[in-house]
Amino acid sequence: MATTSRTTIIAVTNHKGGVGKTSTCINLATAFARRGLTVLVCDLDGQANASLVIGKLHPSKVQVTIREVLLSGTPEVLTEAIHTDTNLEGVHLIYGSIRLLKIENDLRARVRPAEVLADKIKYLNDIYDIILIDCPPALNLLTHNALAASDYYLIPQPTGDQFGLYGMEDLIGTVSDIKAANPKLKLLGVLMMQHDNRKLVCKTMADTLRSKYSPVFEQTISHSTGVQQANMLKTSVIDLDRNNKVAKEYSKLSKEIISMIGLNDLNQISNEDDEDEEEAHSS
Ligand SMILES: Nc1ncnc2c1ncn2[C@@H]1O[C@H](COP(=O)(O)OP(=O)(O)O)[C@@H](O)[C@H]1O
Ligand SMILES: [Mg+2]
């Protein structure tokens, strides 16, 4: 068990779809677990894409998902919702559910609709080192719940899309609203996705991001067909091929995050991966 005194909860969020939220959850979870940290992925997206990759069961077959945690949410239901045997070694999962798409009215009937998740998962404090919440592609009540329950939010942002920043201010505005309920919420970082520094559009977007937002992660994520391949094979790109460029980038990103949030990197094996990577850069 890890040495931290409390759990760090990170919402992976961007209200645009297809920016790499789910892939980032899957690969960061793997990278953190390989560094010896205890990790839970909480799938808060009705599309349940993270569950389709990480879970051994089809989400439609799972009775107790994050929806049931939100709706009933006794500690017993929470315990039942956690699946410890998944496709990613050392990564636990609370499944998402297609039925999440209809949960908003139930949540709105609560006294503090955006704080239901925070209230339900507080029992996990100290059990995991890291909880990653995969958010839906919308600034909806589920995303508000993720932000209200989290210590940090991480924004994956493709740099090859010149319109990519459209709407970012809405996300930042939502965060300001949520901060009233959750003052500890901080930007962990903007993660430049499918980034290629040789392309002018990517370089321009990188400059814009660095001038407007802080922090932007030092580590960027490249394009690799290995990501799609891994998703299809229900694994992470790190587990599929640790020498894949993106696998190494997520591993290094996990290291950057661990040092940002002051956790201990417990596993020497991943450090060897980092050394491989450093050698590759210097050769
Ligand atoms: N670094 C990457 N290189 C290539 N394809 C990627 C990369 N990251 C994500 N993808 C692909 O882009 C699509 C959207 O990614 P996903 O993680 O599902 O985004 P989101 O959760 O934001 O909708 C998926 O098909 C995924 O395989
Ligand atoms: Mg997704």
> What do the pLDDT scores average to?
91
What is the CATH topology? Rossmann fold
Shape: globular
Quickly count the helices: 13
Largest sheet: 7 strands, mixed
Biggest sheet strand line-up: 3-4-2-5-1-6-7
Query: Could you tell me which ligands this complex binds, including any ions or cofactors?
Result: adenosine-5'-diphosphate, magnesium ion
Q: What is the level-2 CATH architecture name?
A: 3-Layer(aba) Sandwich
Radius of gyration: 18 Å
Query: CATH top level?
Result: Alpha Beta
Number of beta-strand segments: 7
Write the CATH homologous superfamily. Answer: P-loop containing nucleotide triphosphate hydrolases
Distance between the termini: 37 Å
Proportion in helices: 40-55%
The low-confidence runs, each spanning 5 or more residues with pLDDT under 50, are 1-5
Q: Class by helix and strand content?
A: alpha/beta
Order of helix and strand elements from N to C terminus: EHEHHHEEHHEHEHEHHHHH
Strand content: 5-15%
What is the total number of structural domains?
1
InterPro entries: AAA_dom, DNA_Partitioning_ATPase, P-loop_NTPase
Protein name: AAA domain-containing protein
Domain AAA: 8-186
Pfam family, one: AAA_31
